[in-house]
Structure prediction request, 331 residues.
Amino acid sequence: MEALRFRDGVLEILDQRLLPFEERYLPVRDARGASEAIRDMAVRGAPAIGLCAAYAVALAAREAAAAPDAAGKLSELTGEIAAARPTAVNLRFEVEQALAALPKHPAGWYEAALRYAEGRSREQALEDAAIAQHALELFRPGMRVLTHCNTGGLATGGSGTALGAIIHAHRALGLAEVLADETRPRLQGARLTAYELQRAQVPHHLIVDGAAAHFMAQGRVDLVIVGADRIGEDGRTANKIGTYMLAVLAHHHGIPFVVAAPRSSCDTSWRDDGAIEIEERSMEEVLAPLGTRFAAQGSSAYNPAFDVTPGELVTAIVREDGLFRPPFRLR
Ligand code: MRU
Prediction:
């Protein structure tokens, strides 16, 4: 099951809005379609949206090369791709790298961008495998592990980051169970993580986001491991809303709190007092989750999609190039 694939000039996106009930690939033929798929979360997870953006640059290059002002068109379309979601740094990173891989003449743009995207797809698989291998030293047989959102194969071009590491650790050592936060409001934990854990035959239970403290207080969590959308040089981590709450809880209960992510999620320019943009999504996602209205008519909601965990609350960061402990000075 691949989150994305490219066939006969068409980008095919496994439509995660339909999971776990339907596995259907959404055909995307132009750059604007790819930007829309990222915005509406047909594809999601920082590395996967980065990879989608790399393929989208190829689609943009194909369209732009045929336009009267090729460079202007390319810059307009790739600007839209990079801005589709603001928090994951992977999006901007992959667009910049894909553009840097283009030759001068528009006739060669499409092939060059496609080569870049296909190369990144292979690299992400290797990065995920290396993350899982480095993370193994944090796990012990029989552990009970808590995770948030979805960071598995659906969220990257490989086997996943935090969830990939969990599945690898279960195969290598045997975990007692995984507690998966359902992850309001888009329910990535319930719809995607539980689905991946089930397919991988890892024992797991879904819990509501508010239950984490209860399970920690009962001594039923040995390790928390999550992914990231952006990591600053001091280990500060932007990730799915609710992650910061888990880090505070883990600290209070003396439980290790680990972040697993590739280097392409690291933004070393994010430091000191610098703020990043936290995506604010439609309030309808909270008032009417997955289209079913719960809130009273006329109610309003806030819907920040991410929060920021300070580096002091992070016990370790695992990347493809190793396992880092505080004080973090990431490069
Ligand atoms: O809004 P989403 O589903 O794109 O958010 C995903 C997360 O927060 C993940 O933890 C993060 O992107 C890492 S995915 C390997």
